[in-house]
Amino acid sequence: AVASDYIDANELMRGYAYYANYKPSDKLADASDEAVEEAISHVELPDTTASSDQLLIIPSNLQVDFSLEANGIRYDSLLVSWASADVAMRDRTLQVTNALAASNMGDIYFEGFYSTRSKEQLKAGFDLNLVDITAQKVITLFPAIDTLMPLLTTFQGDLDCELAITTDIDTLMQVMLPSVDGVMKISGKDLGLKESAELTKISRLLMFKNKKEARIDNMSVTGIVQNNVLEIFPFVLSVDRYLLAASGTQHLDQKFDYHVSVIKSPLILKFGLNAWGEDFDHIHYGLGRARYK
Length: 293
Description:
This protein has a 17-stranded mixed β-sheet that branches. It has helices at 9-20, 33-41, 135-141, 144-148, 197-206, and strands spanning 2-4, 7-8, 64-70, 73-75, 78-90, 93-103, 106-118, 121-133, 155-156, 159-168, 181-193, 215-226, 229-239, 242-251, 256-264, 272-279, 282-288. The protein is mainly β. It is elongated.
C-alpha cells in the first residue's frame, strides 16, 4: 500500500521525461552508480511538462501490485483532494482499477489500462465516469473529446459523463483517432446553450420565446465511436416551448450530419430540421419531414 499527503504528478512526469534521455558527462563515465545518482539528483528539471512528448515505457521485468491512497494530487490543471486506486503492473502493462477521486473537476470514477508491449502494440483504454462537471472541464481533462463531440462545448451547466474507450497510441503518447472504439453517454438537467450565430438562426427558425438563451430541462445522449465516426442514437430533449427528438453522425474529420424532429410545438405542423456541413464553421440547414414521432 502507498499513502501520501501530496503528489505532484507534473513534477514526476517532467522528471521521467528528463532522466529517460539523461546522459552523464564523460567524467562520470567510469564513476560508480552512487556517484552518477548523486550527480543526477542536482540537475534542475525542465520548467515545462514534457510528458506529452515522451513515451512512458513499462519495464518488462516489473511485477507490482499495490493500493494507492492520496490526500492531494496535482496533474496539469487537475487538483485532486482525495483519491484511492488499485494498481497492477506486469508484461509491460499498467492497469488501474477501483479508482475514486474528488477533484476541482468534479467526482471521478476510473478504471483503465496502458500497454507498451512493443512499438507496434501501444494501446490504452479506460472506463470513466465524471459527475457534476462542466463541458469545458471535460475537454480540459481529455482534449480528444472536443474532436469526438464538438457540440459538447455548446452546453452550459453541470453534466454527468460516462466514457468507455480503447485506442492505439503513437510514440508521442497521442491518441490515434482512427483506432478509437468506444461508447459515451452525456446527461444533464437545467442546461443552457451558449449564445452563437447558429443558435440565433435556430431560435428564429423555430420561433423561440427567448431568442438569446435556450434552456434544456433534461437531456441524455448516448453514442458509439467506431471507424472514425461517432453515431449519436435518437434522444429526446425539451427546449423552450418544444419537445424535440434528435440523432446524428459526427465524423472525426469534423464533418457532421444531424437531424431534429419537432414532436410537440406551438405550431400545427410537425417537421424536421436537418443540419450538416464540413465543420461547425460552415453549417447548412434545411427543413424536411420529421423522422421521429
